[in-house]
Structure formats: structure tokens, C-alpha cells
């Protein structure tokens, strides 16, 4: 398995990485996992990728009473709280790198896939983080994707090392599930089909929505995740992204 280069520097165990560094790592891993993925794209099997390629263990447990916690990754040997079948809090002994996902909280397959790879990103990128970074000095740090309760994925400006950890895990998940090369290729093909290579304008928003919906289905990700990826890759403008967001809010299609 391809890991971070030894030349990467760290701040209290948190790797100093730019978005392009994470993208390069993800692309190299994808190519090693499936040598045909960039020529004949198909959504990766997240279970095989995490368990067989990354060699990480995943458990499915209820992690919170209100469904607010989608996933957790143990950054140290220790213990984490889970919710039993009877609705009581229990303490589970865990090993460093164990991943926990709450299927009920995630609610749909697309969010499960993103959450799993997000947590795998923590286990892969943050295995050397120092306890002091976690602020509360607990042996395990609870992690969540930045998909809020309405299904919107956001990337906030990182102000602390914990913020950087969340940004890195989100970017890793986006790059694994929506590889740049594949997104560009499929988007350009659909743009040609629906717009005949003409510039996208607000006069034809339905065509852009159609592209987004089809691509979200093809990549098996949520519509907000795909919209954000298209904006990040500069395939759509900020105004177009906002238009997609408003349309999804109106239709209640944020998950």
C-alpha cells in the first residue's frame, strides 16, 4: 500500500499537506488498487479498499443517541463510547486505527461511503498525531464528516490543527470517491451532450442540474458532494454552485 512520503513534515503529528499532495496520494493508491480506474471508471468498493488495501478494520455501531455522530476513528489504543442495542452507553476497547461507522446516522449508502473513506483518511493520515492536538487528551478523538444535518458538505477555513485534520480527511474522501481525472472526463462528455459545448448560462439551469444528478449517481456520492467537487475543480462557477444548492434545497435532495 502506498503511504505518505517520508519527506512529509509534521506539526505535532499532523502532516503538513496541501490539497494537491492529498490528491496525488489518493490517485496513486487508486491506481495501485485498480489499474483500470482512470481508463474505465467505476465506483470503488469502499469495503474492499479499506479492509483489503488499507488493511483497516471497520465496525458498524450506533455512536450517538441523536444520530449526530456519523463516524469515529481511534487515534490511540484505548476506549470509545458506543450505544448498545438497549439504548445504553457502553465503553468499547479499541486499537489504534479502528474505524466505527453509524449506518443509521448516515441514513443512505452515499453518505456511508463518504463517511467510511473520511474516517479511513484519519486513520491513514493522522496515525502519528500527538495527544496534545486533541485538546481534551482523551485516548480516542471523535471525528465527523463536515456533512451537516441538511446534507450540505462544507470546507471551512482551518484555524486549528484539528480543523486541518478534518479538511485533510474530507479532501482525501473526495479524491478517492471522485478522482479528478474521471470527474473531468465524464463532466466534459456530459457538457458536450447537453450543451453542445456552449457556455453554461443561467438560462439553462435544468441541464446543469441533470449533469449533476447523473454524475452523483455514477460516482455513488451525494449531490452536494458532487456539486462541491465540480466547484473545487473549477468546472462550475461559484454562481452555478449556488444555483445547484438552491435547487437541491427546494427539492429536498440534500442527502
How would you portray this structure in words?
The protein has 255 residues and is mostly helical. Helices cover 45% and strands 10% of the residues. It has nine helices and seven strands. The strands form three sheets. A three-stranded mixed β-sheet has the order 3-7-4, covered by helices on one side. A two-stranded antiparallel ribbon has the order 1-2. Strands 5-6 form a two-stranded antiparallel ribbon. A hairpin with a 2-residue loop joins strand 1 and strand 2. The radius of gyration is 19 Å and the shape is globular. The model is unreliable at 136-150 (pLDDT under 50).
The secondary structure category is: mainly alpha
* Total beta strand runs: 7
Task: Estimate the global geometry from the Cα principal axes.
Answer: globular
Radius of gyration: 19 Å
Largest sheet, order of strands side by side?
Answer: 3-7-4
Helix fraction, binned, reads 40-55%
Distance between the termini: 32 Å
Biggest sheet, in brief?
A: 3 strands, mixed
* Element-by-element helix/strand order: EEHHEEEEEHHHHHHH
Q: If helices are DSSP runs of H or I spanning 4 or more residues, what is the number of helices? A: 9
Mean pLDDT: 87
Amino acid at each position: 500500500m502506498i503511504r505518505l512520503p517520508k519527506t512529509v513534515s509534521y506539526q505535532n503529528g499532523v502532516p503538513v499537506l496541501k490539497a494537491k499532495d492529498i490528491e496525488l496520494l489518493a490517485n496513486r493508491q487508486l491506481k495501485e488498487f485498480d489499474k483500470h480506474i482512470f481508463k474505465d471508471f467505476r465506483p470503488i468498493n469502499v469495503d474492499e479498499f479499506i479492509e483489503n488495501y488499507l488493511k483497516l478494520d471497520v465496525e458498524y455501531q450506533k455512536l450517538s443517541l441523536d444520530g449526530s455522530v456519523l463516524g469515529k476513528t481511534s487515534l490511540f489504543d484505548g476506549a470509545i463510547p458506543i450505544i448498545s442495542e438497549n439504548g445504553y452507553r457502553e465503553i468499547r476497547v479499541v486499537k489504534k486505527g479502528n474505524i466505527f461507522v453509524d449506518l443509521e446516522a448516515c441514513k443512505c449508502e452515499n453518505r456511508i461511503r463518504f463517511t467510511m473513506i473520511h474516517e479511513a483518511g484519519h486513520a491513514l493520515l493522522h496515525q502519528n498525531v500527538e495527544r496534545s492536538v486533541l485538546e481534551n487528551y482523551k485516548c480516542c478523538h471523535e471525528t465527523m464528516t463536515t456533512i451537516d444535518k441538511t446534507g450540505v458538505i462544507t470546507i471551512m477555513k482551518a484555524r486549528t490543527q484539528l480543523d486541518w485534520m478534518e479538511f485533510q480527511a474530507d479532501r482525501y474522501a473526495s479524491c478517492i470517491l471522485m478522482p479528478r481525472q474521471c470527474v473531468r472526463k465524464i463532466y466534459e462528455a456530459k457538457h458536450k451532450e447537453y450543451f453542445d459545448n456552449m457556455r453554461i448560462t443561467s438560462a439553462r439551469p435544468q441541464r446543469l442540474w441533470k449533469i449533476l444528478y447523473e454524475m452523483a449517481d455514477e460516482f455513488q456520492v451525494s449531490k452536494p458532494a458532487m456539486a462541491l467537487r465540480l466547484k473545487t475543480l473549477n468546472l462550475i462557477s461559484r454562481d452555478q454552485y449556488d444555483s445547484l444548492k438552491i435547487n437541491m434545497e427546494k427539492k429536498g435532495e440534500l442527502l
